[in-house]
Fold this protein.
Amino acid sequence: MKYPRLVWTGLWRKKARTILTVLSIVFAFLLFGTLQGIDTMFNQLVDEGRLNVLYTRNPAGLPLPLADLSKIQGVRGVTQVTYESEFIGDYQSLRNIVVVRPVETRGFFSDDSSFQVSPQARAAFARDRTGALVAQSLARKLGWNVGEQISIHALNAAKNDGTSDWAFEIVGTFDIPGSPFREVPQIFMNYPYFDTARVKDAGTVESYEEVIADASKAEEVGNAIDNLFANSPYRTVTQTERADDQSRLAQLGDLNFFVKAIVAAAFATLLLLTGTTLMQAYRERIHEFAVMKTLGFTDRGLAALVLSEAILLTVVAAVLGLASAHALLPVLGTLMAQVGGPGLTMPWIVFAIGIGFAVLLALVSALPAAWRAQRLSIVDALAVR
């Protein structure tokens, strides 16, 4: 039991220095866990994108004519087409931001099995012009019930009556089990209600969604759709759901590069800091190591002692930092969900990689001190003042 006690005592010789070093490592791994968790979750979202579902949008983000629907339906390989628009609003105050998605009531839910909606709610949604389907998480948060009348104040969708208030009757709720977008505060509304009541862009949609029979022909079908509108003022870009998610993510910049650059800079600084701290601790303990060798401690034993102290210090601090990131990510995900972003969690693979980095960091930082401890001469060490 002598080694664990020696390791623990060695770490706390200088309490202030140890605490500051631990805090530095905790912050570095908090940064690593948070950034890597966000990057990993976004990459998983892209990987989960369906290859048999295509999205058609205008490359400049302009609305597309609803009249294009019949042309897209006629493309060979397309089995179903639906469409949607979107606007942002709030319920009673800006603290309750809501994403409102006007959709084609009969076709939108039938081609997306990820949405769970009861047949009764779906039928009521198709029947009631002002009916709305509300995310279960949003209904719980705001205390809404089926049959309740609500009003959403639009931030970017004015009505032709001079107001921006959209009235709805809640006809049902929906859920998206297992989806990172489960907590997004969404409302689905009847597209004809939206289109006839809005002040501008009537007869247009934000995007089309096509289901195709053969996922291997996605590029061919997409090109056929885009060729229909190549000479039109409303050009289109059609790509798979996976590619669409990837391109929208790319609008944020090369997230993967930024994450790696920031993490690399943090770890380079941390390596320098930890290595300097361990070497300083070694110099302060030269006499102590000489006495330990005199008492029978082997060269390898002293080297192992130095490495053990570094590993314990770094791994414990890394666990604290990663645990903090694990707790922080859901909070950030909740904030992102308020504006339509996905929920966030830290995958266990990120935790495992972080611990691996911590061990590697400890070994690299402590090797110079461990090597000197192993080669330390008792006579020379006792002569040092």
Observations:
- Residues 2-47+253-383 form one domain.
- The chain has two domains: 2-47+253-383, 86-205.
- Residues 299-337 form the longest helix (39 residues).
